[in-house]
Amino acid sequence: MLLAAVAVGSLVPVAPALAAEERRIEYHIEAGDLGEALKTVSRLSGKEIIFNSEAVLGKTAPRLQGSFSADEAVRLLLEGADLVAQYRKDVIIIRGRSEPSGDLSDRSAGAGEIVVTGSRIRGAPSTTPVIVATRERIRDAGQSNLGEYIRSVPQNFAGGQNPSVAGGGNQGAENQNANGSSNLNLRGLGADATLTLINGHRVAYDAVFGGVDISAIPLAAIDRVEIVADGASAIYGSDAVAGVANVILRRDLNGLIASARLGGSTEGGNFQQEYSLVGGRSWVSGGMVAAFDFNRNTAINGRDRDYTGEMDGSTTLLPKQRQYSGVLNAHQQLSSSITFEIDAQYSNRTTEIAYPYTANFDVTAEGLLSQPKVETYSVTPTLRISLPGRWLVSLTGTHGKSNTHLLSRDFAGGEEDAQVRIKYDGRLNSEEINAEGPLIALAGGDARLAVGAGYRSVGLDASSRTTFSGTTRTTYDISPVRRNFFGYGELALPLIGGPSARPLIHRLLVTGAVRYENYRGVGSLATPKLGILFEPDPALAIKASWGKSFKAPTLFEQYQTTKGTLISGRGYPNNPGGRAALLLYGGGRDLQPEKATTWTASIEFRPLRSLRVEVGYFDVHFNQRIVEAIGNTDRAYGNPIYDKMITYNPNEAQVRTALALLQQPLANAAGQPLDPANISAIFDDRLQNVSRQHVNGVDISAQYDLEFGPQNRLSLTGSASYLAGDQQISPGQPVTEIVGRIFYPAHWRARGGASWQKSDITLSGFVNHTGGAKDASFAPPENVAGFTTVDLSLRYSPTSWSGIGRGLEFLLSANNLLDQAPARIRVSDPTQIPYDSTNASVTGRVLSLTISKAW
Questions:
Q1: In angstroms, rounded to a whole number, what is the distance separating the alpha carbons of residues 706 and 117?
Q2: In 3D, which of 352, 264, 266, 365 has the Cα closest to residue 316?
């Protein structure tokens, strides 16, 4: 009777290789349909899993990641499904509770190996919200790379280091497009305050801004992206102030998939080409996946948009780019208890950006043409050792580089009159040992501990050389190296759960972590974090976390040279004769880590098995931020707020002491010669730890999955983030808003949509919204309209085709279907970009077609 019940297709052929139940393999299965998840375990493990399709109809499985046996995998998938399983040597039989059996196993899944970004504990549920996007969801949304994906995440600010930022950095001091990279910038606190990982490990920093170029990883190579928008320095160390993102690579694939994509903006420019190849092979004791991707797009220039008609047509709004990238991810079981893993990435990208100096002449007549080249690579081998008592030890090492070389050519009078060559070569070497496993049995499951220690070396070779009239001058040339040692511990205590659950207390989990870091030349510090998960009912979860986070100074901040300029003192009060002043800026001070206190609280509702709603609050106090605090010397002179940074009427000895700090010749912009005995003031505007920021807000997310029958599903998703924040540059200075202004994060960002799969067709539609902002650049201030777009995509995957048509798939996408244009902002110069490129996109309507073939 049981075999007849599964004749509908729930059976998967058995692989007769070896005793499958003894073999531990790696699983990466997203949360979703339970029946499909069980079939995936059966296919990968080679162990037959028998179940009645009616028993699993409408049931969902949790997300599963880790290395474990088929029996353990099934136990994890069945948690909360009200099903029981009978584990035999060659088969697993799953039944409903109405069919009890004397030897069915109902052991707790607490010893599973599910790993969630934001914790080192296997099997521990997260105490903070986690944003997850699979490769398929990103593709169905019409996004062709990870850069496009992160710019659609409501918790991320597109300003910072991103190719969409136009104007050469004049749209907000912290918004740059130095090399065409795409850096995450959670909560708008800066790319250097968001930690980006690949397969859970660090890679080399991109250029000098302390971020990681996420677009260097081809979409075809990833399994999913996980983002935790909460401080995580106690788990991962420096940079995880606003949160952490983990790009998890594809691990298992049998076959070859080739794809080609063509697209472009209907308004002109941005013609896109992308060709990718991903292949893999899995065997009994291991597997390998390799991917290669080539993509390029043409530029969008000023002549391509009517709202930039006052600019010269050669002005770059979106840069021309070309990129080659490749990824390798492999694993091999060396013995029953030892597994070797390795992942490697390589990327090579060239970009071209034009900045005309006037609105009447082409960039090659009067302007600057920048041509950055970026090459990155990373190699990370890992050895995992299973010990008695279900402990797992891993030894990991990473070697990586990210090299940015910029050639900027300056044109005057139609001829090239100068060249600037800038080099930012970053490197990373790290070694780490980690261990995780159960300690003692508690009422809610095993108390689990994760501990680890390691060493990391980060280096930067940075230089700038200008060639003018045959003479080359070096602006700076530094090669600092920073070494740090660290150790951490994390504990998860399931106080109540499983058999110990009681009315109004279904689960209670408490977590705690602490990390100690010693930075040579910077200092040492310890960062703690506490978390709690309380479920009064299986349909309701209350989560909260509190912690300390930090960000070490970037190497460029800490080791850049001290520079000086002689400036005019005309207009200063009580300065007879308009004596000149001396301005010091750049590096040279002893900088300390920037520190933050973060906490989050959220409520997750699951009133139906297929419906999840989560509402959360976050708060970040970010102190000791590194800034040049004076800025405008005219405003600072005579203001008591700046007394600690200004020496008035210095004597000659004080002036000569200040001049001795300079690591390059003094620049003279005063219009008079230097006279050390006749200086009105010394402004010390070198970088220092004095600024503070405070951001807080609310995140809302919801997902509702409906099944109308076999291969007929509808998924509704939505997320929104409200952000408020302010900043004080230094003590005594006014507190200013850093949210809701042009070139800064908007108060509101949201994205919502639906995806409907009917047999071979998947139709997806999304609405994206970025709230309006205030333009206070001129008086009186004006409100700038928000930016709302609609995206549609249609995927056709014919399963009935045979022969050459077998394995074909077609994806048609329309991003910004209604061709929404950015709202105009006021500018004082026609060479300036007349819209906020950090909050609105210049691409307009983008249509694309992707054709892929699987073998």
A1: 27
A2: 352
Q: Of 81-85, 177-181, 600-604, 733-737, where does mean pLDDT reach its minimum?
A: 81-85
Picking from 194, 213, 204, 193, the residue whose alpha carbon sits closest to that of residue 457 is: 204
Does the residue 317 lie in any domain? no
List, as one string, the DSSP characters of 671-728. Answer: SS---TTS-SEEEEEE-EEEEEEEEEEEEEEEEEEEEEETTEEEEEEEEEEEEEEEEE
| One domain for residues 145 and 257 | yes
Are the C-beta atoms of residues 404 and 373 closer than 8 Å to each other? yes
Residue 147 main-chain phi, psi, to 5 deg: -65, -45
Q: 716 pLDDT exceeds 80?
A: yes
Residue 615: both structure tokens together: 């509402």
**Least reliable range by pLDDT among 174-183, 469-478, 488-497, 637-646:** 174-183
- Residue 553 carries which DSSP code? P
Domain range for 210 is 131-307+322-336+348-449+488-553+591-627+689-854
C-beta atoms surrounding 507 within 10 Å: 21
Domain count, the chain: 3
Q: What are the tokens at 189? A: 């606190």
Contacts of 494 (CB under 8 A, 6+ apart): 110, 442, 443, 444, 445, 446, 447, 507, 508, 509
Domain shared by 288 and 232, yes or no: yes
Residue 205 lies in a domain: yes
Residue in this structure with the two tokens 């910029």, named with its chain if needed = 406
Tell me the whole-structure pTM to 2 decimals: 0.85
With bands split at pLDDT 50, 70 and 90, how would you rate the model's confidence at 104? very low
If you search the block for the tokens 């952490």, which residue do you land on?
A: 244
Please, what sign has the CA dihedral across residues 212, 125, 110, 72? negative
Determine contact, residues 74/105, Cβ cutoff 8 Å. Answer: no
Is 574 found in the same domain as 543?
Answer: no
Q: Per residue in 264-287, pLDDT tens?
A: 999 999 999 999 999 999 988 999
Contact 772, 783 (CB under 8 A): yes
Given a contact cutoff of 8 angstroms between Cβ atoms, the answer to whether 105 and 76 are in contact is no
C-alpha closest to that of 452 among 516, 547, 501: 516
Under 8 Å between Cβ of 49 and 69: no
pLDDT tier, 160 (very low <50, low <70, confident <90, very high otherwise): confident
What is the distance between the alpha carbons of residues 842 and 24, in angstroms, rounded to a whole number? 49
How distant is the alpha carbon of residue 366 from its chain centre?
37
How many Cβ atoms are within 10 Å of 826's Cβ, its own excluded? 12
Separation between Cα atoms, residue 117 and residue 199, nearest integer Å: 10
d(CA 146, CA 660): 47
| Residue 54 pLDDT grade (very low, low, confident, very high; cuts 50, 70, 90) | low
The Cα angle at residue 457 between residues 454 and 460, in degrees rounded to 5 = 160
Average pLDDT, the chain: 89
Alpha carbons within 13 A on the beta-carbon side of 368: 14
Distance from C-alpha of 133 to C-alpha of 791, rounded to nearest angstrom: 17
- What is d(CA 442, CA 445) in angstroms, rounded to the nearest whole number? 5
